[in-house]
Structure formats: C-alpha cells, structure tokens
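Archive entry. Fields below.
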Amino acid sequence: MQVTPKAYIAARVAKELRDGDVVNLGIGLPTMIPSFLPRDVHIILQSENGIVGTGPKPDSEHAEPNYVTDAGGQPASVAPGGCFIDSCTSFGLIRGGHVDCTVLGALEVDQEGNLANWIIPGKKVPGMGGAMDLVAGAKKVVIAMEHTARGNPKILHKCRLPLTAVKCVDIIITEMGVIQLTEDGLELVEYNPDFTIEEIRAATEATLIISKSLCPITP
Amino acid sequence: MKRVISPQDAAALIPAGASVMVGGFMGCGNAHAVLAALAEAETGDLTVISNDASMLNGPNGEEYYGLAKLVHNRQIKKLIATHVGLNPEVAEQMNDGTLEVVLIPQGSMAEMIRAGGAGLGGVLTTTGYGTPVQGGMHVHGTIDINGKTYLVELPLRADYAIISGHFIDQTGNIWYKGTTRNFNQVMATAADTVIAEADNLVAIGDIVPENVMTPGVLVDYIVSKGGNQ
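PREDICTED_STRUCTURE:
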C-alpha cells in the first residue's frame, strides 16, 4: 500500500459514487472521498445542517463562519446551483429517500448489517446527531472504516454496543477489503493483495463468505 | 406592527423553570444577543430544546458561543438535543448529575417540533427502531403498517422559542441567511411565545413577500440589538 489506510479506503469508496448522486458524508475519513472522484463524476453533497450542494471549504477571505457552516460548525460554502434549506426540509430529504448514498464510520458492524457508531456507554456520549436518520433513510449506506481498532475486530457476529440502526448497512469498505451484505451474510467481494484471505478472516469476528468472483481492489 | 424590544427585555420575559426552544446549529443561527442577555439575567432551571449545546468557542474566537453561555452558567436543568459532543461542559454536568440530557435523532427532533407547531398528534418514523431511542420518553410505542415498524413519536412544544433572522421586518416576517435557518424556522411554529432576534430590522416591503421564510404572524416579539423602538 503506497498510501495511508484512510486514503486507500477513501479512494475505493469514491468508486461507489455515481455522477449526479446526492451524498451525505460523515465526519473524518469520509470527507477525504471527494478528492478521489474521477473528473467526470460530480456529486451533490448534502450537509444536514442545511446545504444541498456544499462547495469547497472557503478560504478565510470568503468564509462567513457566523452564517455558513457545515454540520460540524466549521466554515463552509455552497457550490453554484446549490441551496440552503431548513432542518425539516433537510431531514425530509434524508428520510424520504432523496439521498442516494451516505458514507459513515463505525465502531461496530455485524453480519446482519446492524450498525453501532454513536455511543460508548460510560465513556463517550456525544449524541447521534443525524446519523440514525441517515442510515435509516439513505438509499445506500456505506461504512468506511479501518478494519480493526487497536487490533480488535470491529466486524462482529453481533454488535455489542447500542445500535444506531438495525439491518441498515449495504457495504463495508476497509483497508483490507470490500464486504457486501447479502441475504446469506457478509461476503468478501474484493481484497487488498497486501493481505492474505486468512489475515482478513483473522481480523474479522463475523463469518466471512468468500465471493466466487473475489478480485483484488483497484482503488 | 410588532413590539420591538431590547435583548434585556426579551430575557426578562422568560421566568426560571421555563421550557425554551433555541434555534441554531453549533451556534450558527443562535440568537446571540438574547442568549447573552439571558446569561446575564442568570435565569435558572431552564428546560432547553435545541439541536446541540453549541461550542465553547465560536468561529471568531467568541468565548462560550451562543447557547454555550447558558450551559457554562449552569442555567439549564434539562437539555433535549441531538448532539452535545462539541461542548464538553455538557458531559461534565451530566456526569456530576446537575444536567439531564435527552438525546433525540436530529430528523425526529425536527419532525416532532413540526408536529407540535402544526397541530399533528405525532410522528411515525423508522429512525431509531431497535436502538436505545425506542425506550425514550418521547416515544409512544410502535405501530406496524404495511410490514414496516414505526416508532410513534410525540409532538414537541415549549413555552418560549428564541430564534434569529438576518432580516426581520416590522410585522415580524423573517428572511434567514446561509445555514442559520436550520431549526429557527420550525421552532417559530411550536412555542407559546416566539422571540425573534434581528441581525437587521428592516421596513415592511424590504423582504419581498415571496421571499418571506417565516410569516410574521408566528412572531410575538422582535428583538433589535439597538434596543427599544
């Protein structure tokens, strides 16, 4: 791997997005994805605090940080053709299936597609914000995360942390591979050739089905 | 013509123990002058309904940005919010038992307030099903319709709403700038008394009727930072 695991993951996630998709990106790794999009793929970024068509991060000369921010409270901009909306309209778009894809990180995902990413009881209680709405409402839910946390598997038989939503995940993309949710369970469809299948299995608590058409990732 | 009052007069309207909706998103769109006056008034035991608890520092280095002032002063006894992670003082007060926090998904909060303001009996949503949200005080069980299970969520209203608009005319019509609209628009519908802080108080007609985002009939008091008029 020539790049950092996060950049490798972001580059592979970018291939999931289609020209014209309305996309909501979570904080952290997912925000790296737009820089990996091919030139002919233009996505419309939704920011749940009230932007459809979020533009690039403004420089200090153009920023209006008291008036235009992203969902993390940081200065943002609106792209040409974009618009500002209120919270009801924003979540109407999210819950109504008008967002084609959301990409978020996870603390845990399990083989039923359950997701836990909003609370560690007794430790970290930031709140769910819009995450529960996004994973319940978006047409496609992509989990983009490092495969393990300090060596411990995050892809489990059953989530142990409180859930964000049940059976909501469509695809998991890590630095080790691409795993699709199927009716039979989690199917490894692409793998990073820097790892063996056995290494990927060892880093995964859930049972992995190896796809008949398994192929190397080409990020 | 609506009554135009100062931030201090607006703060004085709100008694200790009141429930207050506060528009804004991480401080963006908070009614900063009214919240500062409410902090100075030291009105306590408030139940606050807001997306978040703002941030300790604003984008221009403001200390205790917007609603964060009321958290810092420990004026809030109960906070109903969706995300409090950017204000660490909330976790401190939760842990020492002085602040009760109820977390609600953001879309649910928006729709529950909309229901409260639009006379609806509640909201049906799949958001939160199978999660700890399902056991929340705001959830009135579940209902199965056409093979899907929905949470039944109750409407949300408050005694007061403190909102802000960039242009407000003398009838209370509001135009919001940028992402400041967020929860301000819906909160204007769901409180007994609505206090709207104007960045700019403008003449009737300065906001083209088609561009009015909140009709003035919802606004009880306009706050001008310049004081009484």
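CURATOR_NOTE: Chain A touches chain B through 47 residues (CB under 8 Å).
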